[in-house]
Amino acid sequence: MSINCEILDLRAFLSVVELESFHRAADALHLSQPALSRRIQKLEQAIGAPLLERTTRHVSATALGTELIPLVRRMLEEFDGSLFAVRDIGANRGGLVTIACLPTAAFYFLPTVVRQFNEEYPNIRFRILDLPATDGLQAVARGEVEFGINIMGTSDPDLIFDRLVEDPFVLAARRDHPLAAKPAVGWAELEPYHLITVHRSSGNRTLLDAALAKSNIKLRWFYEVTHLSTSLGLVEAGLGISVLPRMATPQDDHPFLITRPIGDPEISRTIGVVRRRGGTLSPAAERFLEMLMGAWGRN
């Protein structure tokens, strides 16, 4: 089913929501209030449901309208970006790439690829939402971003998960730690030391605990934090050791930290790209995704 609406209909809806007033929105768009109301009515008829709740003193988005706001905002940004891009030629063409990325991938791995991409396409801007796994999937499903980088597949029939790479869990320790002298370690060797782990609400912790339970292994933690970056800070301070995905660790030689493989068993998380089924990417996003997948293939 196709929905017949115009860009100005979407601008009208977003302006009313952001300005919380038909009068102020009409002034901002240089429309009469009756013309603005007709735009909103036309959009609501196309959607098949009310998008705004109106009272004599207040206007706000309905539940459906609230869900549509991120998608409408991104559509308008991409449209405006495309207009500016028409003036540019070749590799300097502008654009906007919007993605949802796991914080662990966004911190160390993603900047390297973005820098490489910007050298070739210096006028393409990025909006990166560094979100936990579940929130990232929801951002893709709502159309708030063009695609996501996530650790899990999804049962949502409207989403597609394309596997990219396995990201193993590794030991992170200071260079002067006793385990740093070993080329690899087993899970049992971690037990004598203070272990720093992330909270059970983390997708990484859930995945790790479930995999270890199959081998009747339970980690005894001493410090529990919310973010993996915090655990690295505690490791660097000499407070203990941590287990975290390799992608969440420094990729180059670090002055204080080392990583070591952990075996018996080796546990990894699957990293992939999440997209909406049947959705299309902007030209800028397509180019970036191609470079991203190539870079991941080299890691």
Automatic annotation (TrEMBL):
GO cellular component: cytosol
Domain HTH lysR-type: 1-62
Spans through the membrane: none
Gene Ontology molecular function: DNA binding; DNA-binding transcription factor activity
Leader peptide range in chain numbering: none
Superkingdom of origin organism: Bacteria
Keywords: DNA-binding, Plasmid, Transcription, Transcription regulation
InterPro entries reported in the protein's UniProt record: HTH-type_LysR_regulators, LysR_HTH_N, LysR_subst-bd, WH-like_DNA-bd_sf, WH_DNA-bd_sf
Record-stated family: Belongs to the LysR transcriptional regulatory family.
Full protein name: LysR, transcriptional regulator
Species name: Sinorhizobium fredii (strain NBRC 101917 / NGR234)
